[in-house]
Known about the structure:
The chain has two domains: 3-283, Amidase signature (AS) enzymes (Alpha-Beta Complex), CATH 3.90.1300; 350-415. It is globular. By secondary structure, it is an alpha/beta fold. 42% of the residues lie in helices and 10% in strands. It has helices spanning 3-6, 16-32, 60-69, 74-92, 100-115, 158-165, 208-215, 232-238, 258-263, 273-283, 322-337, 350-367, 369-375, 378-391, 396-419, and strands spanning 95-98, 127-131, 169-174, 186-187, 191-192, 221-226, 241-242, 265-270, 308-311, 341-344, 422-424.
Amino acid sequence: MTTQDFEPKEIAGVSRRQVIHALSLAGAAGLLAGCDSGAAAPSDAAAAGPMPDDLWRASAGELAAAIRRGDVSSLEVVDSHLARVDAVNGHLNAVVRVLADEARAAAQAADEAVAAGAELGPLHGVPISVKDNIAVAGTPTTNGVPAYAEENAEEDALIVTRLKEAGAIVLTRTNLPDLGLRVHTDSYLYGVTRNPWAADRNVGGSSGGEGSALASGMSCLGLGNDIGGSLRVPAQCNGIASLKPTLGRIASATGGSMSGQLMAVDGPMARRVADLRTAYELLGRYHRSDPWSVPVPLDLEPPASPVKVALVPEPSGGSTHPDIAASVRAAGEALAAAGYAVEEIEPSMAAEARRAWEVFLGYELNTARQALKQVMSPDAYDFLVRALDMFGVESPTEYEAMYGQRHRIASVWQEFQEDYPVVVAPIMTQPPFVVG
């Protein structure tokens, strides 16, 4: 099978440089997704245009509206996505489990509800994908390693429950690197996931299976998580949309390590920004199981106009590819044309913030090295050890002191964002790297 056989048709004939340039823009585009506070989920009227012959090409909002109107059935939509998985997943290896029987049964029930005139949720009958470290009842939460291959979940994670309550149907589970601890998706249990735009390029991690599945049309809306870029990096690598939620925005009942409690969040991923917004509206609600959870509405009073934007095309601390810097500046020009006050300025203490992340995560992973070695592949463990050695975090004194530093960093950033509510910067400063 050639690359062209499984690439989305929209990029047929596009040069490699254009693809990489487009992917570099995705990081800025993901940040811009939250800038329009007046945006709303598509209504039936807004999504009433002709549906594509291949239903998998449609957005979640378009599919939900068409199902509500009776233009298509949920079963037809599910079957279209199943056919797409059959067509492209053999090469991409983004989907690791297909819940065909369960999804088709749920779709039939969804169609019966439409026929009965029942009240329908915003995502009624729409199939979704879920990363394989998020619990879906009755299926293993493998975390990409053989040690957890039979760890069947007894109940859904809260983020899954909330999309199911909105009518969504879980169709597939997607790949991730071992325990989610890598920026490239190659798991001990399932192997490597490929980028549908350029098969020799990194798909990102750790929600790389989601990124590839969404970009290639196997899914229109998915669920992942992020502690150090795991939603955002695959979004940039695959040219899709995602945002890392602020802690407390999307409730999660999962505890875990202290660094996980402070920095890890669940969140949605999508091909369309409008679908991402719909998911945020459904997921961003208070839940008593999460002590960080807060009932903050998605639409708040907008800041005073003109809104100031901090543009960071070339972050300090390393090099930035010219295409990526140019893409961020293009995003700034678009915002300026829309009436925003754009200024090239970098927030203070960016390097200190990065070091805090290294210390919190690095120290805790260091203490767990031997346990991690037992479940990770040799290659994945070797990569982790190299990263931890580079972080150089072994002192509990530095770890403990960093909690005080964290408060200072957060205070400085909060003050900065009082003046600049929007910060536009690349997620990764280089294009997706070449993989073997």
